Amino acid sequence: MKQALIVIDVQEIFFNKPENFLFNKEQLVTNINELIKQAHEKNIPVVFIQHTDQHEQDEFFEGKDDWKLHRNLLVSDSDKIIRKTKWDAFYQTELLDYLKANEIEQLIFAGAQTEFCLDTTIRAAYSLGYQNNLMYKNTHSTLDSSVLSAQEIINHHENIWNHRFLTIME
Questions:
Q1: In this predicted model, what pLDDT tens digit does every residue of 26-79 receive, in sequence order?
Q2: 169 band by pLDDT with thresholds 50, 70 and 90
Q3: Annotated domain spans of the chain
Q4: Residue 42 contacts by C-beta under 8 Å, 6 or more apart in sequence?
Q5: 94: phi then psi, degrees, rounded to nearest 5
Q6: Where do the Isochorismatase-like domain residues begin and end (predicted)?
Q7: What distance, in Å, lies between the first and last C-alpha atoms of the chain?
Q8: Contact 91/81 with Cβ under 8 angstroms?
Q9: What is the number of other CB atoms lying within 10 angstroms of the CB of residue 3?
Q10: Is the torsion defined by CA of 107, 108, 112, 115 positive or negative?
Q11: So what's the pLDDT on residue 25?
């Protein structure tokens, strides 16, 4: 089964400002880089999804420091970078066309934020026919909310996703 690694929104904003720090942010980057390294070694395409706002005053406006992919990610010239403007990485982007053109059958997801762009994209992928997807533990993260800690949000979503929208791997 031909795979692709999809890394969603691991951007500088989550590492530059304490109020936006992802839960376990340094370990997250280490774990995602391990996935990237393995994908490169196995010639598995790596797709970076980069949230991009269309208004110059927004933090994710193209070119701003917070918008950039995290400086420590192992991005190579052969990797694909797709910009999105909504939580769903498939919505009005080239992602689906890219996956079809490369005959990808299984997606491996990683990134941020668990309950927003990651969740929305995982569910969209499932609805689009990608129903045998994977996620490795500790390769996605989020922030504490006013109701739940980041760890509780992660646990909750993994419980919902596992054996429904994807399989969580140890």
A1: 999 999 999 999 999 999 999 999 999 999 988 899 999 999 999 999 999 999
A2: very high
A3: 3-169
A4: none
A5: -90, 5
A6: 4-132
A7: 20
A8: no
A9: 17
A10: positive
A11: 98
pLDDT in tens, 110-146: 999 999 999 999 999 999 999 999 999 999 999 999 9
d(CA 73, CA 52): 18
* Whether the Cβ atoms of residue 85 and residue 113 lie closer than 8 Å to each other: no
Q: What are phi and psi of 41, to 5 degrees?
A: -65, -35
Neighbouring-strand partners of residue 109: 6, 135
DSSP 67: G
Mean per-residue pLDDT, 96-108:
98
Burial class (CB in 10 A: 0-12, 13-18, 19+), 59: middle
Burial class (CB in 10 A: 0-12, 13-18, 19+), 76: exposed
Residue entry with tokens 């504490």:
144
Per the CB < 8 A criterion, the answer to whether 141 and 113 are in contact is yes
Return the C-alpha torsion angle 74, 27, 136, 157, nearest 10: -120
Helix axes 150-161 and 119-127, enclosed angle (nearest 10) = 10
- The structure tokens 């909310």 sit at 145
